[in-house]
Amino acid sequence: MTKAEIHSNSYINREISWLQFNARVLQEASDERVPLIERLRFLGIFSNNLDEFFKVRYATVKRIVDAGKGGKSELGGIKANELLEIITQIVIKQQSESLEVLDAIHKRLEDENIFVIDENQIDSSQHDFIKKYFIQKVSPALVTIILNDLVVLPNLKDSAAYLAVRMVMEDNKKQFALIEIPKTINRFVELPKQGDKSFIIMIDDLLRHCLGYIFNIFDFKTVSAHMIKITRDGELDFESDLSKSFIEKISDSVKHRQIGDPVRFVYDKTIDKETLQFLMSKMGIDDTDSIIPGGRYHNRRDYMGFPSLGRTDLLYKKIEALPIKGLSLETSIFKAIDKKDYLLHAPYQTFSYIVKFLREAALDPQVKTLKITIYRLAQISHIASSLINAAINGKSVTVSIELQARFDEQANIDYAQQMQQEGVTLVFGVKGLKVHSKMCVIEREEGKKLKRYGFVSTGNFNESTAKIYTDYTLFTADQRILKDVNKIFSFFETNYKIFRYKHLITSPHYTKKAIFKLIDAEIQNVKNGGEGLIRLKMNSISSYNMVDKLYEASNAGVKIQMIIRGLCCLIPGVQNMSENIEVISIVDKFLEHTRVYIFGNNGSPKVYISSADWMTRNIENRVEVSCPIYDDDIKQEIIDTFNICWSDNVKARLLNVSQQNEYKIDNNEPVRSQFATYDYYLKKLEN
Q1: Which one from 382, 436, 503, 509 is the annotated catalytic residue?
Q2: What kind of fold does domain 333-493 have according to CATH?
Q3: What is the pTM for the complete model shown?
Q4: How far apart are CA 666 and CA 674, in angstroms?
Q5: Is 436 tagged catalytic?
Q6: pLDDT of 243-252, one tens digit each?
Q7: Could you tell me the fold of the domain covering 505-686?
Q8: pLDDT one-digit tens code per residue, 467-513
């Protein structure tokens, strides 16, 4: 791939940049410093990320090609059909690397007396166990499709893994079949230990071993099975049926996703050519789809659930989420917040404070109203049960729930229906805009007045992800901020009105203008002979408008430090364009999810936490909130933790024009920022 293909003068193509982010995830799988079973799980994350990329981004580019458009202006200077080819080549290379990583991990597992065996390595005692396991657990869950030229191939499920079976009969005729690998059964079957040796067989190989039982009615000479997987377009297409509720339309569209157009076909490269051609012709795979020759196993996302086998020495040491100094889970959270603001930094500090806030609101007789935005709920959500509890106790509860949270729609639909049945008022955002802001406000009767308490966050109110995503949540009784939060809920209900906000920066109406004003102030500081400083931490930056503004600031002499976990269309360190911009990316044990904007402001920093990345969708097509930090102690805490991340020289990669993900190396003492951040909060408690 040439430099011109990566970017067109000023921008790195977002799809290519995203693939380089996923390469950083693959680096974690290959990193000897990462515990062995965690390396397998990173391999699963890499694979899962790739599945979602093809469902969404590749599918979007393919739609541009199918519509007969070039797409050059939208895609950073690359034609859509050329980009599809570049993506496929990058993915083939990454898939090949991931197979090498997997082989290396398997060898290391054997050093630890953990053996992942296939159907050719089964001994007699294991055979008896497998036969019994197959008959009792696997066979009842099996879906086997017998194919021949007269049968139309049924729609294969999106991202499900199948074994493509080829039988050569006694008369030399061929019979094809598909076995859907059941998702209801763990992909990894633990076999009985032999001494200190642990054995695992993948369900794929267990099925290969049992092909004779599955197809015992056929008179075959030989039988073979190879893995295939199809990925479908993941966009939601809505019906215009006016008789259906919004929940029904979303639900139907989620189901329809399973039969969307194919965009990627992955197959075992050792598959018989006759079988491959038969399947591709039946499935209607064409040359605009990404056809990826792979290894023996697909759906490697399942490695995210690789069993621990009781080997805690091969896992990251679990950290105990810390309390927040001065904030108790045993006394009233409202009384504490009334006196000062508090900051929760998950997963270093416990998410229980958010649940405690909502539980207290549900029980407190003086609380009259509760309003919250929901983007991604956990499968078992204490947040949802607290909101239902509040409604049962007579509070006026309003929930703005985003039913189009990508790939979490079904969980949100289920909870939305439960909440609706219990009297919670549901607001389904604003037409044409996703509600991605994370905020809550309650009104509590105190004397003859209503006082507001609430929180604003960078992350989802989700107990599961709070254990692995880094996020900030500000608890506050600052009436200035909460008055603005309340206005946003008014906007949900009367969105023909555009409200003005004195303190919050909100999308879609004000983010670009407000951020530009803050950047312009730093440019002016330099012009006045002072220092200009901008420090940003976010998941992604792809808005060309925002990139261009940062280039302008760089050319004016403003120093810019950026920590970008995911895709970055900005090219740092280029003479006369971005020479004052440095960008790093941290991929480690936790998923970096905090979004922070810090503006130097001549030594009196302005600090914001935000739900918004600097992507066009976040700035123009979503409801997002950036919240100012007014408490000096919290402001310093955010700056401190940014400094720790910026000092990382163990897990930080340099994002630059080469796109090679080189590790940041300096002569300082090793700093692994996620571990150092935990120590920072530990010392805060000790002091």
Answers
A1: 436
A2: Endonuclease; Chain A (3.30.870)
A3: 0.88
A4: 18
A5: yes
A6: 444 445 444 5
A7: Endonuclease; Chain A (3.30.870)
A8: 999 999 999 999 999 999 999 999 988 877 788 999 999 999 999 99
